[in-house]
């Protein structure tokens, strides 16, 4: 088993994920895994970074596929005996003018952004080594979507005692409510992407709390963040940041030094903790 440190970035064949891998290849003192659900797109991205003189490694990972997540888990366990840095970056968003029925958008978006990210955490967080760093890429949209929730939902999502099961039930309820066209009556905002990212931010707060309870002394830091508005296939060419600029906050959180005990369980943008 290798004693080399290891970092994994989900959804990193393009966009912000690729830029995070680029920065980690330059700054992280260990192996950096570019992952992609499609091996062809992943290998092409590896080749692109190799052209820049960098040496990322590749592993297939589709966060919608539990078998794929478990294959990566087993590989990391076997080869490295754990994991030092995990960046949950993979995500999807329907375009504003997409005519796919809202209930379908809700189901598909939540499946990847919330349930897929949660499955990766369930399988990989137990592998995190002492002083490990976990970064869940959420969005400022999670904050604005929270503001669009009913007072009752806001209270639940801001709660310091909400459990993962309760959060999963709420995310499932959102999808069910959209199918019955009652989501607005039930206090939800009209944004599937926003609700999925509320899920990512709240999940991060819960996971950080669990780390405090169950692994105190291991100094693992876990945070959610917003990369900013970034020029990628998701956000389009008018966005204000380049992918490399969008990678700055996630990479800052991924490389928090061993001496740091904060931020932890926070929502961070532009390297600054934001109120939730
Ligand atoms: P992007 O260019 O569309 O890249 C998304 C990446 O996620 C792609 O590599 C995509 O792979 C991958 N992905 C999607 N579903 C996946 C799955 N089931 N399994 C594994 N990988 C999957 O988007 P981006 O702008 O870089 O976004 C990266 C993250 O930042 C997302 O979580 C997004 O919500 C968040 N974010 C972006 C912005 C922004 O302004 N761009 C703002 C706030 C937050 P394929 O190539 O196979 O589709």
TrEMBL record:
<keyword id="KW-0963">Cytoplasm</keyword>
<dbReference type="GO" id="GO:0005737">
    <property type="term" value="C:cytoplasm"/>
</dbReference>
<dbReference type="InterPro" id="IPR036291">
    <property type="entry name" value="NAD(P)-bd_dom_sf"/>
</dbReference>
<dbReference type="InterPro" id="IPR002347">
    <property type="entry name" value="SDR_fam"/>
</dbReference>
<dbReference type="InterPro" id="IPR045313">
    <property type="entry name" value="CBR1-like"/>
</dbReference>
<protein>
    <recommendedName>
        <fullName>carbonyl reductase (NADPH)</fullName>
        <ecNumber>1.1.1.184</ecNumber>
    </recommendedName>
</protein>
<keyword id="KW-0560">Oxidoreductase</keyword>
<keyword id="KW-0521">NADP</keyword>
<keyword id="KW-0597">Phosphoprotein</keyword>
<dbReference type="Pfam" id="PF00106">
    <property type="entry name" value="adh_short"/>
</dbReference>
<comment type="similarity">
    <text>Belongs to the short-chain dehydrogenases/reductases (SDR) family.</text>
</comment>
<dbReference type="GO" id="GO:0004090">
    <property type="term" value="F:carbonyl reductase (NADPH) activity"/>
</dbReference>
């Amino acid at each position: 088993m290798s004693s080399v440190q290891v970092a994994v970035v989900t959804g990193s064949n393009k966009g912000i994920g690729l830029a995070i891998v680029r920065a980690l290849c330059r700054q992280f003192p260990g192996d950096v895994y570019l992952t992609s659900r499609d091996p062809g797109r992943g290998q092409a991205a590896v080749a692109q970074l190799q052209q820049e003189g960098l040496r990322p490694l590749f592993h297939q990972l589709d966060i919608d596929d539990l078998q794929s997540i478990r294959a990566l888990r087993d590989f990391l366990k076997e080869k490295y005996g754990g994991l030092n840095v995990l960046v949950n970056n993979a995500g999807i968003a329907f375009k504003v003018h997409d005519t796919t029925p809202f209930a379908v958008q809700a189901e598909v978006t939540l499946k990847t952004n919330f349930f897929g990210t949660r499955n990766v955490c369930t399988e990989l967080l137990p592998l995190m080594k002492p002083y490990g760093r976990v970064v869940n890429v959420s969005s400022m949209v999670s904050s604005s979507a929270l503001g669009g929730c009913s007072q009752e939902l806001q209270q639940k999502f801001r709660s310091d005692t909400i459990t993962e099961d309760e959060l999963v039930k709420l995310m499932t309820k959102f999808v069910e409510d959209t199918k019955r066209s009652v989501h607005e009556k039930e206090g939800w905002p009209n944004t599937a992407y926003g609700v999925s990212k509320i899920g990512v931010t709240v999940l991060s707060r819960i996971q950080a709390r669990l780390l405090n309870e169950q692994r105190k002394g291991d100094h693992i830091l876990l945070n959610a963040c917003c990369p900013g508005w970034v020029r990628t296939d998701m956000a389009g060419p008018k966005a204000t940041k380049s992918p490399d600029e969008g990678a700055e906050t996630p990479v800052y959180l991924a490389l928090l030094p061993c001496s740091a005990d904060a931020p932890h369980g926070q929502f961070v943008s532009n390297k600054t903790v934001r109120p939730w």
